[in-house]
Amino acid sequence: MPLSWALLVSLALAVAGYIIGRSRAFASAGTDIRKLHSRPGYHGASVALTTLTPAIVVLMLASVLRMAKVFPPEATGFAGLLALAASVAGLGWGVTRINTDFRARNVVEKIVQGFLIFCSSIAILTTAGIVLSLIFETGHFFQKYSWTEFFFGLNWTPRFQGNSSLGILPLLWGTLYISFIALLVAVPIGMFAAIYMSEYASKRVRGIAKPAIEILAGIPTIVYGLFALITVGPMLRDYFAQPLGLGSSGSSVLTAGLVMGIMLIPFVSSLSDDIINAVPQSMRDGALGLGSTPSETIKQVVLPAALPGVVGAVLLAASRAIGETMIVVLGAGAAARLGLNPFEAMTTITVKIVSQLTGDNDFAAPETLVAFALGLTLFVITLGLNVVALYIVRKYREQYE
Amino acid sequence: MTDIPMSSEAQPRGNSLLSQDARTRKRNATEKRFRMYGVIAIGIAMAALVILLTSIVSDGAGAFRQSYLSIPVALDAETLDPNGNRDPAEMSKVLTLSYGKVLDKAVETAVADSGIAIEGLTSTDTSNLISKEASAQLRNHVLADPEQVGQTVDFNVLVNGRVDGYFKRRVSMESAARDANTSPQQLQLADALKEQGKLVTRFNWNFITNPDASDQRPEAAGVGVAIIGSAYMMLVVLFLAVPIGVAASIYLEEFAPQNRWTDLIEVNISNLAAVPSIVFGILGLAAFINFVGLPQSAPIVGGLVLTLMTLPTIIISTRAALKSVPPSIRDAALGVGASKMQSIFHHVLPLAMPGILTGTIIGLAQALGETAPLLLIGMVAFVREFPAAPPEGLWDPASALPVQVYNWTQRADPAFIERASGAIIVLLIFLFCMNLLAIFLRRRFERRW
Amino acid sequence: MYDINRAESAVTQQDIKISASKVQVYYGDKHAIKDVDVEILDKTVTAFIGPSGCGKSTFLRCINRMNDTIPIARIEGKILLDGEDVYDRRVDPVQLRAKVGMVFQKPNPFPKSIYDNVAYGPRIHGLSRNKAELDEIVEKSLRGAALWNEVKDRLHEPGTGLSGGQQQRLCIARAVATAPEVLLMDEPCSALDPIATSQVEELIDQLRENFSVVIVTHSMQQAARVSQKTAFFHLGNLVEYGNTDDIFTNPQDSRTESYISGRIG
User: Fold this and answer.
1) Residue C97 is nearest to which of A203, A284, A290, comparing CB atoms?
2) H or E stretch at B439
3) Alpha-carbon gap: A93 to the closest alpha carbon of chain B (Å)
4) Do the Cβ atoms of C95 and A289 come within 8 Å?
5) A326 touching B (Cβ < 8 Å)
């Protein structure tokens, strides 16, 4: 790899540059280093950075161009040489700049600040990368498959030999159904847990319950998935679905919904906790001072005041539920179905993304490319929910600041 | 104004404070009920946690215990080292198959010596008592020390998964009767051998050090490669996400001017934190594998994807840590003539370090447990080779702990469910240690202003 | 006729409404109130004055048991309201607070309409049988708080949209609507401008006709303007209690004298 060699050599040059720069600064100061504008270390660092920066810029350009297949791999040796030349030139230029009046510290700080700006822009690059990769491949998909059939199709039956029906509606239905059950479990339990802990619980109870709920939050979703697969699923099947004659499958909407609900409890409870605590104490005192009971205070004063925040929290939880993958992969099943029976297996958008993209992928087949269209749909739905929820929560916080 | 609130008959309150009127009693009952709901909610959450953990631990504990047949094995020199040079290079040409024959003979001899007679016991039952993986283990053992050839050594032979499952109560005589891979007679033989002390159940180090094994050999499957893969990915995340995250936080918190670009970045970060993890998997597949051309199943790709996922978490917690350093510290540094950059790197950053570390560890813990995006970048592949040492090893195929769990849930043999739960125990132990470290750091360096 | 129970026992304007004896309050290890004895008269404005942190607000909050909401607070001694100990085990703080209303330092209207703010107390205590009665209570309370004319056309607009002085008068109307016998005011004017302050002070003087009013204030001028009785607190002790005129013109204790002449505080 000529590029990594070039990087290593220019790193070595930079170290040399630091030493040369420092000693030159000492030399130019003579006996009194107070004459220097910047401390000698900064002079050294300025040389090191002027050596390294051009090389890194050249190397990054070269690797981007190579990835984009603009120039052939054979040209990388040339790019490496170019990078080396740039770093030698930088070294020479940096060394000649050193004298007592040279503002080395300002130069170093400018470059460091540039690095900081670059790092914070990575978030933007990530989003751009997500959007571009989704849109690009979704475009390919819609060249091979009609978008009306994708968005309005009622059937999901991918076939390897082609001629598949790839309608998103059964998947969307499963996703929403499972998320709805999860919220039905998580919102009341999470809210009541948060209310109890912030308004009633003694220090001791809080000392036990709060960490326990935090542990629930730290457990990876694969663990919840396995829990759904080996414990909750069989239990629901053996004690509810089969005796009631409603189904015979361990993986079901209810299995995934229940377990996902448990996963969301800490999420809802910590968000509600923040929101309830943002309601000023004076408002509570006002109600208590009029002789309302604590529960009346919560129901009639605190919750109405916190309503926007609570709505935001529920939306965020919904976005989490819709995007959750492992619990539904292991707990909900793989059968795309439009139905109402919660004991039946159904499937979700995320499950199908996983099943279409694992294994050997043929990136020319609509059966593979559909995963990107599903991903884009998922991204748009969750992004919409997040933007609205974050906006509401932000506005709510400002109200009480 | 003397008649302010109301006429006397509309005054339902009792005269005395010491007795409760009907309305107050009713309101207090409502209050009690409301409190009860809270207790129930907390109870459900705690019960869910307890049930979840006990179900995983009770299912997975078996993975840490394994049955072995402890018998003398005659290492026949004719078969194992035909040239007689005891040269490992030459001996490595001898196939696993030959070791299988040696083992078969050893098992037969052992059973015959023990004098156990079971009606209907076939020779297949006897030779299938041991795992298909056992011959490979014997081969590695011999190649490590060729001088043993020709002698009779005591060797712990890995037992077949069904027999192992029988001692863990996963397999019963009834299920064995219906099972093509075992038989009640084989299990009776195993029982008899156990009584004679030839079949022992011991702590299973191999579960932690072994790589994955194929469908027919659940007894040999381990999380070794998965642990290495996860560790490599954590390395990548640590080396990329932490510096980038801290640099981005410093810029946003200390330097960024209030303008549209900054707003855009901030909105972006809070949205990225809420983007479903699977979408990052799609990004990894499309950008790093299809576009850049990095290899599938490689820890470097997993690490990059997890880095992008963890960045928002690290940025959010680092910014909180920076924010908690009071402005007076910055003013003090600026007041003695330090530049803004110096005041931040010399004073603010060291003071915010404990908070940054805590946030970083929590971000890493999140990344360690993440599964969905890794499925899409090919980490589900069956990998038996340990990756090389980093940095080259980062490009070798590997698995990851949570993905290994998913992998095992997709296998037919129920013995793999035990392995999956066992792998989760390993994962949870790692997470527990990381969180403990975070709590320790927070306690140790907590500062009040 | 605003309260029949009291009408039976009322002999003069000056009967004792609240009688506290040997009251001690601890916040964790801190002894915040030491051995306070005080008798508060009905239909009188009693002012609690003293330097900040002297315990006057803490003592005020003991009277309607608002300190119950602070887990580390511990109270000893007796506070009798019409001869009944408010810290008796059988007393329900909810019922107590309906009898002893409170107005807080910062105006704290609920994020509801003006009407709903005032109607909140009567609703939870079931003081009205129908809408018409509730309307009547709301109107009377708002008139009582000298706010009716300013808000009668916008009763259904949010209470948080009013000015600071209006908000505080709304809070007073809200407290009055519950038909209390005692009204506790914890520095009710500290967040208000001078004009709003004088409006509220005028209102307090009117309220005296119907309630026993206890007001905590950090302003000695205010205490002199609105109260008939004054209690001076210092470091958790009740130093001196007497007629307001006497306290300000002829204090008995040297600490009181230092405080009112501005040497401590």
Assistant:
1) A290
2) helix B415-445
3) 25
4) no
5) yes
Contact A123 B312 (CB under 8 A): yes
CB atoms within 10 A of CB A341: 14
CA-nearest residue to A129 within chain B is B283
Q: Which class is A156-400 in CATH?
A: mainly alpha
User: Tens-digit pLDDT profile for chain B (449 aa)?
Assistant: 333 444 333 343 446 778 888 888 899 999 999 999 999 999 999 999 999 999 999 988 888 988 888 888 888 888 888 777 788 788 888 888 888 888 888 888 888 888 887 888 888 888 888 888 888 888 888 888 888 888 888 888 888 888 888 888 888 888 888 888 888 888 888 888 888 888 888 888 889 888 888 888 888 888 999 999 999 999 999 999 999 999 999 999 988 888 888 888 888 898 898 899 999 999 999 888 888 888 888 999 999 999 999 999 999 999 999 998 888 888 888 888 888 888 999 989 988 988 899 889 989 999 999 999 999 998 888 888 888 887 778 888 899 999 999 999 998 888 899 999 999 999 999 999 998 888 888 887 766 55
All residues at 6 or more sequence positions from B301 whose CB lies less than 8 Å from its CB, including other chains? B284, B288, B289, B294, B295, B377, B378
> Which CATH number, 3.90.1070.20, 3.30.43.10, 3.30.450.20, 3.40.50.300, labels domain C2-260?
3.40.50.300
| Closest-CA residue of chain A to C94 | A291
Judging contacts by C-beta atoms under 8 Å, the chain C residues touching residue A305 are 110-111
Rounded to whole angstroms, the Cα distance separating B406 from B379 reads 11
Of B3, B6, B15, the CB nearest to C5: B15
**In this complex, do A285 and C175 lie within 8 Å of one another by their Cβ atoms?**
no
Tell me what ipTM this predicted complex has. Answer: 0.88
What is the domain partition of chain C in residue ranges? 2-260
Q: Which residues contact B307 (CB under 8 A, 6 or more apart)?
A: B236, B237, B240, B241, B244
Kind and range of the H or E run holding C38:
strand C30-41
- Cβ–Cβ below 8 Å for A375 and B375: no
- Report the amino acid identity of residue B195: E
Measured CA to CA in angstroms, residue B147 lies from B73, B102, B113, B176, C31 at distances of 14, 17, 26, 41, 83
B22: closest CA of chain C, how far (Å) = 11
Domain extents in chain A: 3-133, 156-400
β-strands C237-243, C229-234 pairing: antiparallel
CA nearest neighbour of A333 among A260, A181, A228 = A228
Nearest-by-CA chain B residue for C179: B5
Cβ of C136 within 8 Å of Cβ of B6? The answer is yes
Cross-strand partners of A249: none
Residue C98 contacts A, CB cutoff 8 Å: yes
Which of A202, A286, A293 lies at the smallest CB-CB distance from C108?
Answer: A286
Q: How close B366 gets to chain C, by Cα (Å)? A: 36
Q: Which helix (H) or strand (E) holds A249?
A: none
User: Within an 8 Å CB–CB cutoff, is residue C237 touching chain A?
Assistant: no
Question: How far is the C-alpha of C235 from the C-alpha of C239, rounded, in Å?
Answer: 9
Residue in this structure with the two tokens 């001196």, named with its chain if needed: C240
- What is the C-alpha to C-alpha distance for residues B101 and B313, in angstroms, rounded to an integer? 56
Distance to chain C for A276, nearest Cα, Å:
14
Residue C249 CB contacts under 8 Å (≥ 6 apart), including other chains? none
C122 in A contact zone (CB under 8 Å): no
Q: Which of residues 56-85 of A touch B (CB under 8 A)?
A: 67
DSSP code of B396?
S
Residue of A nearest to B312 (CA): A123
Q: Model's pTM, two decimal places?
A: 0.86
